[in-house]
Amino acid sequence: MSVSSHYDGSAASYFEQFDPERIWTNKEYPANYFRLQLVQRLLAEAGVNSLYELGVGDATPLSTIGSTGIQVAGHDISPEMVKFARANMEARGLDPALISLLDAQDSGAIAAERELRGEFDAVMALGVIPHVSDDNAFVAAMDTFVRPGGRLILQFRNSMFSMFTFNRLTKEFILDELLVGVPDAIRGIVATDLDARLAVDKPPVRTRPTGDGYDEILSRFHNPFELAQVVEQHGFSGVKYHWYNYHPAYPMIADQIDARAYREAQVALEHEGTWRGMYLCSAGIIEAVKDPA
C-alpha cells in the first residue's frame, strides 16, 4: 500500500497530536506538539517572514505558523490531508489555494510548484523524508523553494536512538549500519548473540487491516551525520541538530513505570537540548543555512 493511503486514513484525527488539551490523555505520546514548538522557535530566531512546507499533512502546523503573520504555502501527497489542510487554512483566515496536491518525488510537479509559489525565507519538511526513496532528490526539491541565506528545516527518524532501545531496532542498526563490510559468518554470530541479549520482538510492527500501517509503508530511519552530508552537498552549511520525542527509559521497560510519571518525565526532557538527545530521542531536526549564490 502507498504512503498516500496511509495518510488518507490518518487525516481526520491528525490534529489531535497538536492539541495541548490531549498531552496527558492521548494514548500515543504527542511528540509532534513539541516539534511544532521547536519549529516555531527556530523560525522566530531566524527572523523568517515566509515559509514553504513539503508534506503539510492537515496543515495544523503550517496554518498555526501562518496565523502569526508568516507567509506560508505548501503541498501534500494525500488527497484527504489536502482537503483538511485547506479547511484548516481557511479557518485561520488563510488562502486554502496555498495548499497543493502533489508528490514531492515528482520533479516535474515540484518545478511547476516552484514556478507558481516562488522562493521563501525558509523551507521545511516534517515527517516526510522517512517516506521517500531518494534523499538527494528530496533535499534538492527542498532547495528549490528557499532563497540564498534562507533556512532549511528537515525532520528525520533518528537511527542513533536504536543504541538506547535494546530491541529489534538495536539489532538492525548494529548489523545493517555498524557492521557494514564485516563477513557474513561473523555477522551471523553477532546476530545470534543479539537475539539472546535484546528484546527483538519489540517494538511491535504497526499494521492496519488495510495493509498501510506505518511500518507497512516506506518509513526509514536516518543517520543524522549521513543526512547532514546530503544537506551540505546541496549547498547548505552551518548544520545544527535539534532533538525531540525524548524517552526517559529504554522503551522495552516503559511498562514497568507508572504511565503518568513516564509521560511527565518525557515532557520535562523536551527542552533538554544537549548531545543526550541524539540517543534519547527517536526523532530530530536538521537546521541549515543556504549558502550565497
TrEMBL record:
Pfam families: Methyltransf_11 (PF08241). This is Unannotated protein. The keyword Endoplasmic reticulum does not apply. InterPro entries: Methyltransf_11 (IPR013216), SAM-dependent_MTases_sf (IPR029063). Residues 53-154 form the Methyltransferase type domain. It comes from freshwater metagenome. Coiled coil: none annotated. The keyword Coiled coil does not apply. Keywords: Methyltransferase, S-adenosyl-L-methionine, Transferase. One of its GO terms (molecular function) is S-adenosylmethionine-dependent methyltransferase activity. GO terms for biological process: methylation.
